[in-house]
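Database export, one record per block. Field names are fixed; values are copied verbatim from the stored entry.
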Amino acid sequence: ISSRHGEKFFTTKLLTSKSVDDFLLNAYQNQIPLEAAVEKEIKGGFSIRINPNASGFCPYSQMDVRRIDDVAAYVGKKFEFVVAEYSENGRNIILSRRPLLEKIEQEKKSALKESLKKGMSVSGVVASVQKFGAFIDLGGIQALLPVSEMGWGRVDDPKVLYSPGDKVEAVVINIDWESNRITLSAKATLPNPWDEVVRKYAEGSVLKGKVSHLTNFGAFVTIEAGVEGLLHISKIARGKKIKHAGDVLKAGEEVEIRIEKIDRENKKISLDMVGNDKDISSEGVEEDFRNYVAPAPKTMGTFGDLLRNKKI
């Protein structure tokens, strides 16, 4: 007899061939959990050793409630299973952990519903890392830490920051119990770099930054983690006509820039290339502006225009 979450479980250990005939059938009929060892991986799942005289099969989908990425993590270990199918006098035994795991998750979910609130700080452990974010185990329930919430700076590869088993401090920013989705933010636990921008950087100051990404209207330059400025394409062109910032700059390139304007409220910084001629750069801005403004429709003009035309 074992106790888990205040509930008593009867676990059957099968020791003899008679146990297969008597207790295994009883475990199937009454859905009594039994302890067995994962012997090896076979086609479609795992071979499970129940006792020296009996073995069963557990499909991949029934070994866990989530996708299995590391098969080796299960082989050689003992788990509790329920008998999902028992036929041919014990020659066909299908085992499953899923109902037991789902019940545990439901119990933990019910407990978390009472305690977990939006805006609260939580601690968790990284369960897995994907391109779009990391799944964090909050004690049986997994939450998503999106790439955009990992830090104030740009994150290209989440696996550089997190690995399975890492401890994480985060803030709950969204809870959707109907969809079983909990969203976390790690950057909410960190100081916002924009709070110090006005103090650290002045308009007209010169500094170095790294080109983070390029567009057809300019280049975004990282000044520090979480703080980027826009280097307009007219500033990059230096009087020449270019169609894309990538015609002149490369992502990752270090550039020397001058801060032209800081808009703290909208978190925007306008930049200029050091060494640019002011007249040339201003002409570029005007030309770029004209390209975005549709030409005015033809009219008869002003009364003065009419008089001038008449004299001609």
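Remark 1: Residues 115-189 form a domain with the OB fold (Dihydrolipoamide Acetyltransferase, E2P) fold (CATH 2.40.50.140).
Remark 2: Helices lie at 17-30, 60-63, 98-115, 158-161, 197-200, 233-237, 278-292, 303-311.
End of record.
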